[in-house]
Amino acid sequence: xxxxxxxxxASAAIxxxxxxxxxxxxxxxxxxxxxxxxPQDLEDSLDPHEAVAAGTxxxxxxIYEGLLKPDETGNLNPAVAEDYSVSEDGLTYxxxxxxxxxxxxxxxxxxxxVKYSIEKSAGMMGSPSLIPAFSNISEVVIRDDRTVDxxxxxxxxxxPAYIASIPASIIPAESANDASKLCGTGPYxxxxxxxxxxxxxxxxxxxxxxxxxIENITLKIIPNADSIVMNLNGGAxxxxxxxxxxxxxxxxxxxxxxxxxxxxxxxxxxxxxxxxFDNVDVCRALSYAVDVDNILELTSDGKGYPVGSSMFPAFKxxxxxxxxxxxxxxxxxxxxxASAGYPDGFSFxxxxxxNYQPHVExxxxxxQQLKEIGVNAEIKLVEWNTWLSDVxxxxxxxxxxxxxxxxxxxxxAMLDRFVSDADxxxxxxxxxxxxxxxxxxxxxxxxxxxxxxxxxxxxxxxDNAANIYIQDMTEFVALSDKYEGYxxxxxxxxxxxxxxxxxx
Amino acid sequence: MxxxxxxxxxxxxxxxxxxISAVMMLIxxxxxxxxxxxxxxxxxxxxxxxxxxxxxxxxxxFGRDLFSRLTLGGATTLLIAFFTVLxxxxxxxxxxxxxxxxxxxxxxxxxxxxxxxxxFPSILLALVFISVFGSGTWKVIIxxxxxxxxxxxxxxxxxxxxxxxxDYVRSAxxxxxxxxxxxxxxxxxxxxPVVLSSAVIGFNNAVLAEAGMSFLGIGVQPPASSLGxxxxxxxxxxxxxxxxxxxxxxxxxxxxLGFSLLGDGLxxxx
Lengths: 504, 270
Hints:
The structure holds two protein chains of two kinds. By secondary structure, chain A is α+β, with helices and mostly antiparallel strands. Chain A has helices spanning about 5-20, 55-60, 110-120, 160-165, 230-235, 245-250, 280-290, 290-300, 330-340, 355-370, 385-395, 410-415, 430-440, 445-465; strands at about 35-40, 70, 75-80, 80-85, 90-95, 135-145, 145-150, 190-195, 200-205, 215-220, 240-245, 255-260, 265-270, 305, 345-355, 375-380, 400-405, 465-470, 475-480, 485, 500. The longest helix of chain A has 18 residues, at about 5-20. By secondary structure, chain B is an all-alpha fold. Chain B has one domain (about 10-35, about 65-270): MetI-like (MetI-like fold), CATH 1.10.3720.10. Chain B is globular.
């Protein structure tokens, strides 16, 4: 990681943490509170237009909202916008701003704020866009004091889903030159951040929708996976999402363990710019050698949903089950390796962020399984920051075991990162056929034809063994029996507003 | 027999330490050579199997045989400790010999540098080296080796300073022996008892340092096993499967106890 980048991240974090306090300012009320453990600090950014880490976005979901907002069933409901309409050619989306909606600093949301936010997240302000599909926006027009039109260059039925994603959140226009003015319209507002220690959120009383139940939320950062159980059992933390099966078995009976789907694709992501992963036979050999059922048995007591491509089962409309593309066949794997010119196997390293215990455990099993075909996979444990800068941003790695989620409720969000020139193509996947297919999405006339293309894209990834696909993990959530109301979403978010204290 | 009892009473540490160390070494060597299980092979069916005749100490969270892993982990840890001490003694003896024998400016410069290294807590210094070199078995050895040099250098230097003006050295010099010959043929053998006892204590420290670093996740990387790494893995199951952590902890404790008694005994004899 370059020094400049560290400095930039550090200063951004300091400015934001000092600044965002400006949004709050009323006295503390300890009437009800909960301590939620999270595995990493929100280091990448607290600006919804810049945050890339799933672990950051799932928290920002409580602070910021877009014009629309997804609910737990995957529907897109109006949020900052009260209503919207689409022109007949599918090019103009007209949003009516909710009457009386305010930012957490008490100011009314104006059409200027909406225009600013959409243009910023579309990359029209110079900063890079996290939503590639927003390059399709040709202009944002303020029609009157409550209506904003977003005009597209070509129709895109996924557009409402992008509008509902966290990187398209609405923030005050005045935050452009003054980061201290940054705040959202969500049910919780940001109070403070102590780096590597905690983040404090407080209920926003002026929230337009169903108000949150719990007044204060402390997000306690527990980067050491080994101490999570101790923190829970010791009473320091009331809730922790995404535990491993073994961790849940050690919890005291003061906790309820909930099970759901994580909605991500856990895989060994291969860097195709690095030898030998530029050779499709090598990738296929590795996929044949890895026994997903065995991984599930060893790491999660068999719980989990095997996947065969970059799509998780909750996206029912688009999902095609490809988990049987590479049944475990070590003989075939060896043949493929030999034909690719590696009869004696080869060595590579799997970089794994050490704070994600499920990935660390899965990596150990994968490494052991690959040994059987003579491939020596060394595990390199790194800090989460190092992973973000070296692997995700720097693409300086050979393979990494991680879970990739969807940043918006669209199939595109899972698949656009494999287009060869995509900004977020951290695996350096480059396949002309895939690029062609992806481009044809924008010309597809009907939803059915689009779904067909999505399925083709998934098959392309599976056929070319783009990555060693493992599973959509089971999400175990430990929640103290004093609380209830944890809600699973079909995307990687945590909704704190629905948590409440159990009636005794 | 009486003679032995007399010696034993005079220096029980030496014998108890030697016995514990010897038994541990034997078990580790026998385990690595003759273990019926591949220490890395995973088996979902025997996940957390309890100790039995099939698996002497039971199995870990991946169904790997704990005894095989402990012997392999012990061997890795011993290997790291051995090479760490080897680097420390070799470099430390050279530095100590030259600075102690010649004194003067070289002594001043090297010893101040030595003091600077000693001024940092050793594990912290090793962490810095690890962050520069990266983690992994051989990198741990190099990092710890560098950290261990100064203490040996000091010990050897003080021995050389004491010996260089003794009569036998003077007469050797009068007979025209070269400096190098005096240093390593005449003086060095006299420092061996002191160096040996500090080597054993150093060995001990190296075992603990490796365990500490691997426990923190910066030493030996999975799936390779070392005692520290295993203890760190076992920590997650401390309450549900205490056997894993207890067996690993006892292994480290016995190893350290054996070597530290041995070191004390050697010191007494020296």
